[in-house]
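Journal club prep, notes for RB
We'll compare a predicted complex against what the paper describes. Inputs for the pyridoxal-5'-phosphate case:
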Amino acid sequence: MADTPHYGFDTLQIHAGARPDPATGARQTPIYQTTAYVFRDAEHAAALFNLQEVGFIYSRLTNPTVSVLQERIATLEGGQGAVCCSSGHAAQIMALFPLMAPGRNVVASTRLYGGTVQQLTNTIRKFGWSARFVDTEDLDAVRAAIDDDTRAIFCESIANPGGYVTDIPALAEIAQAAGIPLIVDNTSASPYLCRPIEMGATLVVHSMTKYLTGNGTVTGGVVVDSGRFDWSASDKFPSLSQPEPAYHGLKFHETFGPLAFTFHGIAIGLRDLGMTLNPQAAHYTLLGIETLSLRMQRHVENAVKVASWLEKDPRIAQVTYAGLPSSPYYQRVQRLYPRGAGALFTFSVKGGYDACVKLVDSLELFSHVANLGDTRSLIIHPASTTHRQLTPEQQERAGAAPDVVRVSIGLEDADDLIADLDQALAKATA
Ligand SMILES: *Cc1c(COP(=O)(O)O)cnc(C)c1O
């Protein structure tokens, strides 16, 4: 299926990577709940371990259910290969791991998921890596932040939560001029709304926990490689261009060409870091992806309806949704994300912190949870939860001021969601 680019998105989200099970004819992809695979003979085993033959050895590295999911997502993103892993955060480490080394840095957008800011600020320092945060609206600042030790630029397509959409082609141009890859976290958009590789991105990462699975059942992540980056053009990426001692001096880029990053991710990344996705989770995500386009269309449709209603309501101070004509990013959405700006946005309530807390407690349909991208509509008040450790200034800068709530608009009837917000706002601002 990966060789059939003439099929449309709706067809590929159901069929890419999958075929009837060769042993049983099972039409749905089976859950291969197995740890290991029997080798044909000793020679076969040796060839697999030497990476001379592709096949299944041990499920920390590869599993048939997970492989179908990898091929499906690679196809939907327009990439050459993909490696699934145990969470979105694992995917971010797996994306950086082959590129980085002690002393190296990544230039990252200031507008990122809070957990990613945390991971890149504090945790990666333990590996000797560091991040330099810049506002990606200021392209000169992005260029200025890149130095000889920079190994990637990292951004989100639709940035959670502030209603910000990134100018991916502009960042891709800067990355290309600097000879480094652009990594795009495409979680909030999904490949239905945004295909970063077509805009020049090198790598795409996802938290599959969100829209790809789509119903709040799985924690998972994936790294997709465009297969387009020339890892051997400079001496910056020795893990991919230089001999690998663990495989008798094999050079990944020379040996595997456009699949170098993917093979490295499996043969070194999953082998040694072990952030593996389990086959049950892969199965749920495969089921979710079958309806991705239908869900995203409804998510966007509902988000536009709810955001438009909120914007007109006198109890609301501001709505930040790039799908509204009032957004400063509306033109960019039309140009780069014509299918819509996603279903995640924030709004501020007149009445501040207390009104927000009361709003969250008064809603009946919206669930108060720290997640997004569910069939169900979700709400969170960052200042009393995810961002409560921050100073008021930090909260303000993160788009999480005390009067701000974030919603992830689900697939319910939009009129029901609006009615629920209406009754809860009445209680919150009474
Ligand atoms: C949730 C999320 C992550 C982290 O993913 P997990 O699956 O929770 O590890 C990363 N980026 C974005 C944009 C997210 O929404």
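Talking point for the session: The chain has a mean pLDDT of 95.
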